[in-house]
TrEMBL record, chain A:
GO CC, one annotated term: ribonuclease H2 complex
Cited Pfam families: RNase_H2_suC
Protein name: Uncharacterized protein LOC111597037
PANTHER family: OS02G0168900 PROTEIN (PTHR47204), RIBONUCLEASE H2 SUBUNIT C (PTHR47204:SF1)
Gene Ontology biological process terms from the UniProt entry: RNA catabolic process
Source organism phylogeny: Eukaryota, Metazoa, Ecdysozoa, Arthropoda, Hexapoda
Database matches in Gene3D superfamilies: 2.40.128.680
Name of the gene encoding the protein in the UniProt record: LOC111597037
Record-linked InterPro entries: RNase_H2_suC (IPR013924)
UniProtKB/TrEMBL annotation, chain B:
Pfam families: RNase_H2-Ydr279 (PF09468), Ydr279_N (PF17745)
Known partners and oligomeric status: The RNase H2 complex is a heterotrimer composed of the catalytic subunit RNASEH2A and the non-catalytic subunits RNASEH2B and RNASEH2C.
A GO biological-process term: RNA catabolic process
This protein's record includes keyword Plastid: no
GO cellular component: nucleoplasm; ribonuclease H2 complex
Function: Non catalytic subunit of RNase H2, an endonuclease that specifically degrades the RNA of RNA:DNA hybrids. Participates in DNA replication, possibly by mediating the removal of lagging-strand Okazaki fragment RNA primers during DNA replication. Mediates the excision of single ribonucleotides from DNA:RNA duplexes.
Gene3D superfamilies from the UniProt entry: 1.10.20.120, 2.20.25.530
The family this protein is said to belong to: Belongs to the RNase H2 subunit B family.
UniProt keyword annotations, A-Z: Nucleus
Name under which the protein is recorded: Ribonuclease H2 subunit B
TrEMBL record, chain C:
Proliferating cell nuclear antigen PCNA C-terminal domain boundaries: 127-254
Source species of the chain: Drosophila hydei (Fruit fly)
UniProtKB keywords: Chromosome, DNA replication, DNA-binding, Nucleus
CC annotations in GO: chromosome; PCNA complex
Top-level division of the source organism's lineage: Eukaryota
Function: This protein is an auxiliary protein of DNA polymerase delta and is involved in the control of eukaryotic DNA replication by increasing the polymerase's processivity during elongation of the leading strand.
Protein name as annotated: DNA sliding clamp PCNA
Length: 153, 339, 260
């Protein structure tokens, strides 16, 4: 069982970038939600008092602190949507791409401690884990271990 | 049938997954797709598929393109949603495609089938009823890289593998060290202990002394362990000689105690100096504990104290001496007006 | 909801040490710009004014202005329970009658919280007029503490005389007289060791020595102290708290005929 991503690299370049906000709230709903520019983006302010690049806004009266986050290097940000889940051949269709987004926190200046930043560490860890180990390195490690074992014995 | 597969594909997906049937369009998803996948030449499209994930003990999502396989990591927080242009998206997750050494995925099957005898990948696939394992082993596994974890014998066209524990552990140890160097480079905090929720890791103070080699090793080993079955993870921990966290905690508190006793000595000394400084012991006593505890009681047991009884309270020696010193000075209130 | 976190408990300890000898209780007025405390000592001779700016805290949140009356002796006791490197967080709900003080050890192994009852203090706020001071002296805080301590042995009163030659502290009593003169530092190599005198008009004022000594409890907070003087106006002794704010002590001068 597999799902095909129904687009290629060329298509990505032709799309107009989407504007994304990662909100610290659970919203039980999907779809159009009126004028985001007028009711939300309009109120985004840069607040240097919290640090450089920190933005403020509010969602239903709750203060938000945000920061522009670029898509990590080496990645392309895309939004996809499944066309028809009942088809035999499941497909994800490209909705749009993005270069960066705004990460919002409720009542907390975005920092290294955020779960999102922690998740980004995983990207580097995964890279390190996937880096192949050479035959020489492996032989060396085997020798080192045998040596250590002998010394302990 | 297709539908049920969707649900199992995304465990604990939002409640909106249920009424999907009525809606034409399903929930949008935000992906970070590695440029490495996008740059692969060829007519084939990227594909999401499930392979058995040894760390999770169940099938997990991977993304494939031609002969390349990557893991799909989910970043999810309990209360997150996306705003995409003028649209709300209740699925606040971000799916990130991260590289994975498929050897990790093959390792599980080697340990399962090839500890006693050498087998070819084909015959392992036959034993596994699951079709995805067959696809994984035959399409994405690089026979060359399996040398790191197995003894390889070639007989004509066929290649046989036998799990080699020593080589595997050495290989995993090297992987762990690669992770350690990344963690160090990124200055990831990995000390012991739980953090209070509103504690924000300080970005300025990363105390070099605080972050110990074993802490890094333990964390890296835990990362590697995410791709191993529990048994192999334990073997690796022993191989790397990483003490358990409880052991480390005991050691930590022992050193802390040492520090404390030294501190105790220091304060005892400073007390002596104070006494020798000429103040008579009686005042010292009254100052330090007895009267102090009196006014303490007042404040803690009777909440909103009216100012009146406070004034009647007998004054401490310090206050008396200050009051004496105040004689002859004008009142400060005569200079500053009440607002 | 009010919440303020400082990276190091030692700063708050030092602040409490600097005010608890003069004041038994005080009201911490919290607003989104920070924390302020203003109070007179029991004898109404001196005034303590503490200002901690919100941006000096690691985290600061104050949804509604809040006044928290506290017994400073109790507060100091709670702070004694903190290690110097601990993180300290003060928390209070709007309209709460308690404040929570939480300490987190540097390695986050230990989290302790203390709840303290708040008091309803009927304190008036005094308006302090903007004053052009005739003399402003900046000097090492340790030097000032030393002078006050030394002169206290001779008299209850200290005369501070500021002229263009320098600043002179003197005291006379039964034992004899003491004079300490400080001249402006010639070359300013180290800012924290400099004596800088900014004089418009010479001033001579008399102050209660015990009070000056009480002010010097703030010495650990700052390397330098600033004395601002003007005839017939209270002396201002100011200690800056690095990156956080300042503490100012106002002391009414002694009435002249007492001195002769």
């Amino acid at each position: 069982m597999s799902i095909t991503l129904d687009f290629d690299a060329k298509q990505l370049d032709n799309k107009r970038p989407l504007q994304l906000h990662c909100l610290p709230a659970k919203i039980d709903g999907n779809g159009e939600c009126g004028n985001v520019d007028k009711f939300f983006n309009n109120y985004t302010r840069e607040s240097s008092e919290y640090g450089s690049g920190i933005l403020t806004n509010s969602l239903r009266g709750y203060p938000l602190l945000g920061k522009r986050e670029p898509v990590p290097k080496g990645f392309k940000g895309v939004v996809v949507q499944e066309t028809d889940p009942h088809q035999e051949q499941r497909q994800l269709r490209l909705t749009g791409t993005f270069e960066d987004f705004t990460y919002w926190n409720y009542d907390k200046v975005p920092s290294k401690g955020d779960a999102y930043q922690q998740a980004l560490i995983m990207l580097d860890v995964a890279d390190a884990l996937a880096t192949p180990v050479s035959e020489e390195q492996l032989e060396e490690e085997l020798k080192r271990y045998q040596q250590a074992k002998k010394e302990n014995a | 049938m297709v539908k049920s597969a969707t649900r199992s594909a995304k465990p604990k997906v939002d409640p909106d997954a249920a009424p999907q049937q009525q809606k034409v369009c399903s929930i949008k998803k935000v992906f970070y797709i590695s440029e490495k996948l996008l740059n692969i030449e060829g007519d084939q499209r990227m594909c999401l598929e499930r392979f058995y994930h040894p760390g999770k003990g169940q099938p997990a999502l991977f993304i494939t393109q031609d002969r390349e396989v990557m893991e799909v990591l989910e970043y999810a927080e309990p209360r997150r949603s996306w705003l995409l242009n003028n649209e709300v998206c209740s699925n606040g997750r971000t799916y990130m495609t991260t590289p994975i050494d498929p050897t990790f995925l093959a390792l599980y099957h080697l340990r399962k089938h090839c500890t006693q005898r050498a087998m070819s990948l084909d015959s392992i696939s036959v034993d596994e009823a699951n079709g995805s394992t067959n696809r994984l082993l035959t399409k994405f596994i690089n026979a060359e890289s399996l040398k790191c974890v197995a003894d390889v014998k070639t007989s004509g066209e066929l290649i046989f593998y036998k799990y080699n524990k020593d080589r595997t552990l050495a290989w995993l140890a090297l992987k762990t060290r690669q992770v350690v160097s990344v963690l160090k480079a990124k200055q990831v905090h990995c000390g012991l202990g739980a953090k209070s929720q509103n504690y924000v890791r300080s970005e300025k103070i990363v105390d070099e002394n605080d972050v110990k080699e074993t802490d890094y090793m333990r964390m890296a080993c835990d990362y590697v362990g995410r791709y191993l079955d529990a048994g192999l993870h334990d073997e690796l921990t022993r191989y790397l000689e990483i003490p358990s966290e409880i052991q480390a905690l005991v050691e930590e508190s022992a050193t802390a105690k040492k520090r404390k006793s030294q501190q105790g000595q220091a304060t005892a000394n400073s007390k002596k100096i104070k006494l020798a400084n000429g103040e008579d012991v009686g005042t010292q006593l009254r100052n330090s504990s007895l009267l102090d505890s009196d006014d303490n009681k007042e404040s803690i047991t009777s909440p909103p104290i009216t100012p009146a009884p406070l004034k009647e309270r007998s004054l401490t020696a310090k206050e008396k001496s200050l009051a004496k010193g105040a004689k002859g000075s004008k009142s400060i209130a005569s200079f500053f007006k009440v607002k | 909801m009010f919440e303020a976190r400082l990276g190091q408990a030692t700063t708050l300890k030092k602040i409490l040490d600097a005010i608890k000898d003069l004041l038994n209780e005080g009201t911490f007025d919290c607003s989104d710009s920070g924390i302020q405390l203003q109070a007179m000592d029991n004898s109404h001779v001196s005034l303590v004014s503490l200002t901690l700016r919100s941006d000096g805290f690691d985290k600061f949140r104050c949804d509604r202005n809040l006044s928290m009356g506290m017994n400073l002796g109790s507060m100091a006791k709670i702070l004694k329970c903190a290690n110097n490197e601990d993180n300290v967080t003060m928390k209070a709900q709007d309209n709460a009658d308690t404040v929570t003080i939480m300490f987190e050890s540097a390695n986050q192994e230990k989290v302790s919280d203390y709840e303290m009852k708040l008091m309803n203090l009927d304190q008036e706020h005094l308006g302090i007029p903007e004053t052009e001071y005739s003399c402003v002296v900046r000097m090492p805080a340790i030097e000032f503490a030393r002078i006050c301590r030394d002169l206290a042995q001779f008299s209850e009163s200290v005369v501070i005389c500021c002229t263009k030659e320098g600043v002179k502290f003197s005291a006379s009593g039964d034992v004899g007289t003491a004079n300490i003169k400080l001249a402006q530092t010639g070359s300013v190599d180290k800012e924290e060791e400099a004596v800088i005198i900014d004089m418009q008009e010479p001033v001579t004022l008399t102050f209660a020595c015990r009070y000056l000594n009480a002010f010097t409890k703030a010495t650990p907070l700052s390397t330098q102290v600033q004395l601002s003087m003007c005839a017939d106006v209270p002396l201002v002794v100011e200690y800056a708290i690095k990156d956080l704010g300042h503490i100012r002590y106002y002391l009414a001068p002694k009435i002249e005929d007492n001195e002769t």
